[in-house]
Amino acid sequence: MAMLCAAGSVHLLPVMPSTGALGMTLVALLVAGRALPVWANGVRYAAWAAFIMFALTVWRVESRLADHLAPDNEDKVSRVVLRIAGLPRQSPDSRQFEAEVLSSRPQGVPSQIMVSWNAPGYAGVYGRRDATPAEFPELVPGQVWQMALTLRTPSGARNPSAFDYEAYVFAQGVRAKGSVRGSPKFVRDDGWVGVSGSAQRARHYVREAMQPYLEGKRYGAVLLALTIGDQASVGPQDWLVFNRAGLTHLVSISGSHITMIAAAGGLAMLALWRRLRLRGRGVAEQVPAQVAAALAALLVAWLYCLLAGWGVPARRTFLMLAVVAVAQILRLPLSLSRLLAAVAVIVVLLDPWALFASGFWLSFGAVYILMASARWWGQRVSGEQPGRRVTVMRAIWVAVWMQLAITAGLMPLLALIFNDVSVVSPLVNAYAIPVISLIVTPLSLLCAAAALVPGFGWLAALLAWVGHGALDLMMVPTVWLAQWPWSSFTVAAAPLGLTVWAIFGLLLAIGPYGLPLRGLGWLFMVPALAWTPPRPGHGQWTLTALDVGQGSALVVQTANRVLVFDTGVRHGPDSDEGARTVVPYLRSLGLRKIDVLVLSHADMDHAGGLSSVLKALPVGQSYAPFDLEAHSARSRRLLNDDGPLQLPLARTSCFYGAHWAVDGVSFEFLWPVPVAGVLPGTVAPKLSSKQRNKAACVLRVSGEHHSILLTGDIGVAEERQLVRRGLGAVDVVVAPHHGSRFSSSAVFADATRPAHVISQNGWLNRYGHPAPAVQQRWQDQGAQFWRTDWHGAVTLTSTPDGLQVQAERQTRPRYWQRPDPGGTSDVMP
To answer: In the beta sheet, which residues pair with residue 570?
Structure first.
């Protein structure tokens, strides 16, 4: 535990400690170690173990930080010779894969990069759903290519209680992302390079062999995910169903699947070894059958883990089996708790960034719950000798019951990590676990084996049909239960103290009988599960400008209401900031509905996440300068999306003069002014982007102490008209049109005189937003200028004592976050 805590503490640091600091710590340990009495040897050993783990982790982090993209190469073309190192991700318009850099011109390219190869011609955010997929050469791990790449340091959004993409790619070792320019040139095929490269190559061939038999099948991607861990083809709608039904752990290659395959291999070897004879003597006389079976099971598990992609759950399972096998061979006594602790330390020693993965905590948590359940529940004492049929049925029942215990035990942990609890999960898992574990997964693996053997295509097709049929039947009640309105409920992101208290309660609840307060363990989780973040007082408000890249999404909270202004950008057919950022942020606040939704205009960077928001949360009132229903229907048609979606209960056009007040805070639209042919009833796609910008909603929010101006994408002409109408000073302004040089005029800046200006931008965006002259103009007015590309999400809270400002990248700096020019030097502490 000391070693794990030491490794985890490194990942909470904004910068790595110096060599001098480590040396001083070492000296302090030496002095303290001599002063400790003999009976404190346990503390002494734990301290030394923690220091060694801390120092090793710092060294690993420093080594990875040193392998970075040179600043001079940022957003510039480099000529790179690379080897494909990962299983390429396929989509109709692109290919994406991890690559090992062999050489580059100029120098300064990190050793491991992520390459995106897009088809010629932009297919748009709706993709090529109804068109022929673009043609690409076959990309196989081990191939060497020469490419011209535009390279960037990996960048991701930073929002409160949200997924940290930069941490994710840093943990994967990816230190730059490259976009292909021109026509890459194939150099050679290095074949089966190393263990990792060979495993990825094998995964590629298995995928290519299986795809003809899975084509056209509704859940064919799930069969592929269960075989080789390739989850990229599973659609977002399916993931939504799996999450709401609590089946995510079964759709990936889990520890139970690996253990089952390993056990099958071990049992087969056990039976064979007992019968195998060499020169008239049984080989079991030389090497015990149990040893041979343990080694066979370990080999099968290792091969399957490599085929599965060697993720954290796979590593944990293999290492546990390895430790058990070694203990079995050497006849070493090993308790389950020490086994779990040893494996956890080994996993982190091999990969310090395994602690970043939710799979690490869920995987080890599931094993601990399984061990505790098996150990403390006990077994019924009986003198009868059950038959083989009863023994098999009892074993199946115990396996299902244990999985249900894991499902129930992990629900609090899932709530703390994902802010969502599936109510139907125990019911769904009761029938899904045996179907997927005992039918679908074995048939998927057999299908892969048959597909690789020439002449056995008929068998592969039969196995795929039976396995998919079982999965398809299982999904009928699952989809129905997942669509039930109360299938899951939202849990707010609890503070650290309540989170620790909840985890303590979970450990207590699954502890051995006889522990004091054991029965109250589940109650200790209630404060974290029922906690709601504090809301602003009467007449006060909180504004959060979310980091959604080159787009707009803002959340305004009052004492009892929440308003969402814009829903972020759509990136592609299966990706938008509504699902990626807006909805998770609202759920982290414990919000289950949106009272008012304002869409400033119909541009894709402002309304791109609309469908995802409407699917996830009910909306009471909406305001938009376009026909929201027609716009939503058109988007869903282009996406081939026929999933359930609930439109706002009331839909109104935003126009000058519309206003309302709640919780002592007034809301008033200042723009647009109704003009024939532009406002109410006009379908947005009929207007040009410039026309849509001119008709964007402008909303002023005024509390008892401070005011906000939300501006959409209006330009200089609209700003001047607002000033002529009497627009006065406000405290916070969201920079019009992301800080474009065609907005934020001197007249507008002089009239509003804000204390804070927020510009929502994407890092190194192609528009050059915000324009340097615009940023300087606001700063010359005395405003503090905040940029989401530099500072992450920016939250401002109006209080009687003044405005409180919090920027995510400043409040929670991490050593892996990309450097931003001027990002921290010109802002308030």
So the answer is: 576
